[in-house]
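Thread: Newbie trying to understand structure tokens

Hi all, I'm a second-year student working on a class project, and my supervisor (Dr. K.) asked me to get a predicted structure for one chain before our next meeting. I've only ever worked with sequences, so writing a 3D structure as a token string is new to me. If someone could post the tokens and maybe explain what I'm looking at, I'd be very grateful. Here's the chain:
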Amino acid sequence: MPNTFAPNGFSCQTMTGTIGSFDYSKKYISPANTQQIFYGDVVVQLNTGFIRQKAPGEAVQIAGIFMGCEYASVSQGRTVFSPFWPGSDAQPGSSIEAKVITSPNFLFRVQSGPGTATLPLGPTGYDINFDIGYGIGNGTGGNGNIRTGFSTAFIDTTTASPSVTTRPFRVLDYAPGVDGTINGYDQTAPFNIVMVALNYADTRVLTGTVTAV
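---
Reply by user tm_fold:
Sure, no problem. This is what the structure looks like when written as tokens:
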């Protein structure tokens, strides 16, 4: 069936060259950060030590992929795990611990776009660097899904570049799946799902972590 443009962020699938469990790193979100961060979002490390959602077109190293957070909730009166950071509700002075996949060995599934795409992302896009975009959502900034907690991030095919090495992701292959039965797995149609790896991130440079403001 034709694919529908309905991106839901980066989904960790496997490690390159081996099979292993997900390797989370502990990061922190500032309680003052009102910008929501969704499950499967790309995040960057700030010079304050906190993380935030990456903006499309932002030329900065990424820290990894956000996989939820734990914090002391004001509304619920207890510590909760949430698939996304809602932008508020943390007890004043408390820590918001985020789970972020930072390892360069993991591969991720992600839908290609944007919504105006007319061609699938195929072999001519392999081993080329890409940036991200966000589909329309209902979170702060107009992206993400506050009902499911999932990101609306996608690989933006209009940013393809074999030479700009600061693009954060590299497309490696089609995502394995049953063509035509699940949205995104018709690899002959636009908005197909592909496998990507971290290309330019904190863990892949020799000069140290380049922080964002």
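A couple of things are worth pointing out once you decode it. The mean pLDDT is 90. The chain is about 0% helix and 35% strand. Feel free to ask follow-ups in this thread.
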